[in-house]
Amino acid sequence: MRHSSSDTGPSWVLGVDSGGSGVRVSLAPADAVTGPTRSADRTGAPATVDTSVATVAAADRPAVTGPRGIDAASLLERVLPLVEGLMAAAGARRIAAACVGAAGMATLGDDLRDRLPDALADAFGVRRLALAGDAVTAYAGALGLRPGVVVAAGTGMIALGTSADDGGWRRADGWGHLLGDAGGGAWIGRAGLDAAMRAHDGRAGGSPALLAAAEKQFGPLDAMPGRLYPRPDRAAVLASFAPQVARHAGDDPVAAGILRQAARHILESAAAVRPGTGPVDVALAGGLFRTGEPLLGPLRELAAELLPGATLVPAAGDPLDGAVLIAGAAHHGHLTLPLDPGLLTVTDRPGA
């Protein structure tokens, strides 16, 4: 499918969310994205996207990683048929602007940056393309285009902040389960399994409740190293035990202590990216916060100490919502989030 600048009709924008579990795309009319009324200083009405008029499709196969990072051909193989289906259903002839958000964009995005602008221009007539790290689309989905802090926590954990003075992005953690992601799902699951192993051995700090839960989920713990260490998805395996830690936090002090320490790590990362010392909204985005009160309670309690003057708020939307918002804002010329070579770039193709 090839589109040219001669195509007429309503403008459409596209959001793409590429992660470890697959790819999601969303198509929306460009006029579904509105605001802000004053983009220069990021004040006035906030940018919003009417998600009720967006259509969504998904593929459960993630893009593969090759010698140049995320492989553009594999991403396009998943995205193109999804978008073609949405366009056909909507009667859309071309897409004015798009945003592709991908996990690993900062360090693994070279092939995407080289190939996607031409590929999406040729396929759908995309004139303006934003390429963003998944933390940036999570930020936009959670807070919009306004200053603040977003903590995105699932298997991993990253905090991202920006101010109204074009000071760029501030990032903390997001370094993976071996080097960081402190407070994320894999961190909680590993801490829970450590407590289970301690109880198994009779060492101090063990939790009989978590030992029983681990044996029920994974089988005999003597065999756990052989089952866990060789797996390429061991971060996800560790994170799969985090719900058990939360489930036992109400009656097991070791489990409760793990979640309290996780909350402290999360707030410390948020504090590290906080733009200034004044009032700030801190959005909690990602599946980890569906844990509920066992984690949210310690977060609220410790916030007064670690983030004085901050307000913890739920995320308004998810990373796919953020990708659509960024695409629409780029199309209308009011994208006010900081550009960054790794985290957020915008490419124009006027002749597409």
Report on the structure:
- This protein has 352 residues and is an alpha/beta fold.
- It has 12 helices and 15 strands.
- Helices cover 40% and strands 21% of the residues.
- The strands form 4 sheets. Strands 5-2-1-8-9-15 form a 6-stranded mixed sheet. A 5-stranded mixed sheet has the order 12-11-10-13-14, sandwiched between helices.
Low-confidence regions: 37-45
What kind of assembly state do the chains in view correspond to? single chain
Number of helices: 12
Q: Beta-sheet strand percentage?
A: 15-25%
SSE pattern, N- to C-terminal: EEEEEEEHEHHEHEEEHHHHHHEHEHE
Mean pLDDT: 87
Largest sheet, in brief, is: 6 strands, mixed
Which helices and strands appear, and what pairs or packs with what?
Blueprint: E1 12-19, E2 22-29, E3 33-34, E4 48-49, E5 55-59, E6 65-66, E7 69-70, H1 72-90, E8 97-102, H2 105-108, H3 110-124, E9 128-133, H4 134-143, E10 148-153, E11 157-162, E12 169-173, H5 185-201, H6 208-218, H7 224-228, H8 234-239, H9 242-248, H10 253-272, E13 280-285, H11 293-306, E14 310-314, H12 319-332, E15 344-348
Parallel strand pairs: 1-8, 8-9, 10-13, 13-14
Antiparallel strand pairs: 1-2, 2-5, 3-4, 6-7, 9-15, 10-11, 11-12
